[in-house]
């Protein structure tokens, strides 16, 4: 077990919240605990998926589990349930403090043109041509 992996107590809380497998057949080579530890390792370190250590399973399998659960809302439901459990035990303090010094507007929000800063290419301006009249044509001849 690596330093950031789930402890047995954490796994005992998390395991009942995971979706049940639907497929029968050969048991998986990589346990869900290993794959979830791989997902947690990747999100904690911020490295690319391909750099996940081999002890967590193949990176493609770890990424596949992460994306499937992200698409079907499994991560959101796990988070909501864990949050409800912690709130029921009184572990979450819902006091909020908003510090406006960290809320900064983007530089373009401070009076920039609404249509962007790029100028469109304009056609080259040519001096207007003089209209030729019958009297001008006789004078030129």
Give a short synopsis of this structure.
This protein is mainly alpha-helical and 141 residues long.
What does this structure look like?
- The chain is an all-alpha fold.
- It has helices at residues 8-14, 32-45, 59-71, 74-88, 134-140.
- The termini are far apart.
- InterPro entries: IS402-like_dom, Transposase_6_like.
- Residues 110-123 have a biased composition (Basic residues).
- This is Transposase.
- Residues 6-79 form the Insertion element IS402-like domain.
Task: Provide the fold topology.
Layout: H1 8-14, H2 32-45, H3 59-71, H4 74-88, H5 134-140
Domain Insertion element IS402-like: 6-79
Organism: Streptomyces diastaticus subsp. diastaticus
Biased composition (Low complexity): 129-141
Count every helix, treating DSSP H or I runs of 4 or more residues as helices.
5
Give the structural class. Answer: mainly alpha
Report on the biggest sheet. none
Measured on Cα atoms, how large is the radius of gyration?
32 Å
From the spread of the alpha carbons, the general shape counts as elongated
Distance between the termini: 101 Å
Q: Can you give the helix content as a percent range?
A: 25-40%
Number of strands: 0
Strand content range:
under 5%
Q: Can you give the mean pLDDT?
A: 82
Spell the H/E element sequence: HHHHH
Low-confidence stretches: none
